[in-house]
Amino acid sequence: MALPTSSVITLHINGEKHTLPVDHRTTLLDALRERLDLTGTKKGCDQGQCGACTVLADGRRTVACLQLAVAAEGREITTIEGVADGGRLHPVQQAFLDLDGYQCGYCTPGQICSAIGMLAEHAAGWPSAASGDVRPAAAAAPLTAEEIRERMSGNLCRCSAYTSIVEAVARAAGADAATAAAVVPAQSGEAVA
Ligand code: FES
Ligand code: FES
């Protein structure tokens, strides 16, 4: 007997439930864009290298092109459409807007979602490859430009707006440190994406 190749799944996205039939090979990125019309999440490379498709899954940043939609069932997915608080932009969105953290804007949704996840990781004490002291007991290194560049290195920008992106993330870090700590659990020894 042939095994089924599709299933009806329920995805939790930006606080809403979406039930839909999907081919098991459908990525979360294609489900968001092609099936649910959530086109804020962008497709760049479609192979996990550019970060354009970054979303948050249970508060952790992840590239939606490398995750199957069926594997996202039961997780709380946050896309760029869901990061604002009603009519109030998320501090990271506001900082990108204020400091021109973009040019064409194609990479921007992924940059913003990644920055939100990154600030939560930093607030939880996770080190990066740029951190001088990576022992679990050490306090997280200050978010210097070098730290931000390293922690955001999974998000490429073809317009090379990196200087403004780093400035925007640094500004948001000051405004967002308290709320970020509540999003991600304390350091567990897992590798940071
Ligand atoms: S589109 Fe997913 S990482 Fe490039
Ligand atoms: S702003 Fe154009 S790709 Fe980043």
Care to describe what's here?
Helix content is 30%, strand content 14%. The chain is of the alpha+beta class. It folds into two domains: 77 residues, Ubiquitin-like (UB roll), CATH 3.10.20.30; 90 residues, DNA polymerase, domain 1 (Orthogonal Bundle). It has a five-stranded mixed sheet, with helices on both faces. A hairpin with a 2-residue loop joins strand 1 and strand 2. The longest helix has 19 residues. The protein starts with 5 loop residues before the first strand and ends in a 13-residue tail after the last helix.
Q: Which terms would index this structure?
A:
5 helices, alpha+beta, DNA polymerase, domain 1, Ubiquitin-like (UB roll), 2 domains, binds FE2/S2 (inorganic) cluster, 5-stranded mixed sheet, globular, disordered C terminus, 193 residues
